[in-house]
Amino acid sequence: MTKKNLTRRVSIDPDVVGLLEVMERRQIESQLPRREREKKSRERAKISARRERRATYDLPPLVRNKMMELSGQLSIPASQLVALALTRFLSDYDSGKIDLSIYKQPSRSPRYDWNLELSRVDEFKKIIK
Amino acid sequence: MKIISFANQKGGVGKTTTAVTLAHGLALSGRRVLLVDMDPQGHVALSLGFEKTPGLYELICEKKTLQSLVVSARDNLDVLPGDKHTEAVKREINFSTLKNSTFLESISSAEYDAVLLDMAPSLDALHAACLIVSNWVIIPTRMDSLSVDGVQEVIKTLGGFSRRGHVFEGYALLPTFFDRSTRETYLQFRDLATAFGGRMWPPIPQDTRVREAPAFGRTLWEYSPNSVSMRGLLENQKRVGGYRQILQKLMEILDD
User: Fold this and answer.
1) Is B29 helix (H, G, I), strand (E, B) or coil?
2) Whole-model pTM?
């Protein structure tokens, strides 16, 4: 019996396939009643606007969990709490209240010169406790 | 060295713009390129900012040498121009004479990395002979039924040559003047992609800059290197199509 883990060979250029999918979706949307069309358009604009604001960073799980916990307790979106925390950090950094040199450790990465040793950060120790 | 033809029996589909843009793109990438204007309109010369001359006619009918007729249009880019005299070539010489002429031999043996043939919107003896010496055929087409009919005619012709034993390395369809907002574009694009699969290349978007550039005798690389026809459509934060992407495909073909 033929094995089922076969994958279909894609013979069409992936960019052509992607473009066709987008155009097909738009064609379907164009057949919808006006209200539905406007709703879809608003949704697309919202998704597109959010894309600009998205970023992916690696965080220690403890920090991430603490942020989610706080978000639940205060009923505030975690993204906004993180935005506030980063804004405060940038402000403190600019005004010289934060000295990163005490946390710096040489990095072996070819891309970066330094790592920050988070275990030396007092606030991080408090979260661990 | 590879010979690449730009053909569609329908006029106004972007053959000359595509041939000129890709030829200059290859030249800018360091490839030595010869661009031959097979069209009696002689628009290759105008697109590159010089006057049309009967270069092709003199090569075929007056037996002048290729070296004496080519014009150095840009660094690495030579052009064999054409003008209304090209029309006379078709009257004076038939297919078998052409096939055995020094013209095809001089093109095939020229010391270039690529020879690009900008064909006229017709399929006479001259163009049939040129298709036969081509390794690759690129078929620019608008997304409308008349242009697509021109595609079918070229493909039938290629099929006829193949049946008679000629082996093409490949051909590709290049959608041009691509306006993604219309239903007709979508339907034609979908049907062609379904029918031709991997031979369908990502499109060149509709772009006013393409019409403006020849008026200044500049290629798109010089006139508007970052316009939408060069960089492609923006879909999901990714660029799709455009001459830059097509140039990459062409370079892969040359390196193959």
Assistant:
1) coil
2) 0.75
